[in-house]
């Protein structure tokens, strides 16, 4: 093996995956200096086969891509990135007995940071911090005495965030996300909080939808909304936001079923029920990290229409969104909407608009676009639809692992 050429290939894919040399070194268990020497072909004993296998796992490319010359042409991103694998591993681990346990307040503060990272689409940073918090929250439950309900509530919220993160990576993490969502619901019931139970039920419903069970997903969300409705309606912004989001999840799940007049009507009905909760709330709020309110309901109306492949209805609904209100949404929510608008624009043959929306989504939230299977397929479709793609669009395609 020629170390120099292999080092250049590793550097190429490291940059495409958005890793710094320090990031890549940390995942490899090495220093930045080691990575510099590896990529420069200056390590005489490397690259050993074990090193290349580990590098291929971290960079999410086949081993042969690091061994042969030629234009890199990786397969679709069917496995989660390395930091997400670390999150999955932590679900089945326990904190060492010798490790100190932070106070509840310290863990709540860390959870706030992690939720903010999620809404800012900093999934790599979240993937580094979440494993420790998962194990700490589990330990807090194991040791809790008088704070048992508080500990269960914290544990449920951490697991809900974990499920949300895993849902980002589609089929490759769907089963694990479902297990985590079930654990979150059990913890919420132990805490006895209607808001926690409703929020965890939302994650269970999303898991069912990701496992191709749209009818079961919608039914689960609606049953939770109806059974918890009185408590949530009287529970202030957190309760109303939880209630509204349950109906929005039901609408989204329904929109993945085979389209028919009855299915479209059911989805529209769920959105209308969410709109009632939003009207009662009155304004857009980020209560319990939901970003729920009238604007989020409109964003879901656009998304549902696009999922039904009704591009014109999606664009018409999008015209109702207030620009100032949209600007106040979390980055994750804005990026999701821009991706939806790219789909709707492509459905209506507005190719330039599709490119603009996709590039804007990648600009404000690159981790929401790059490395995600569903978005990668959209990037591929846009590239095919545009006769002469711009360099920015081609570069986005390369970052998603598509042929240059």
From TrEMBL:
Tell me the ranges covered by the HTH cro/C1-type domain, including all copies: 10-66
The family database entries (InterPro entries) matched by this protein are listed as:
Cro/C1-type_HTH (IPR001387), Lambda_DNA-bd_dom_sf (IPR010982)
Q: Name one GO molecular function term.
A: DNA binding
In terms of PROSITE patterns, this protein maps to:
HTH_CROC1
SMART domains from the xrefs? HTH_XRE
Put simply, this protein is called Helix-turn-helix transcriptional regulator
Which species does this protein come from?
A: Streptomyces daliensis
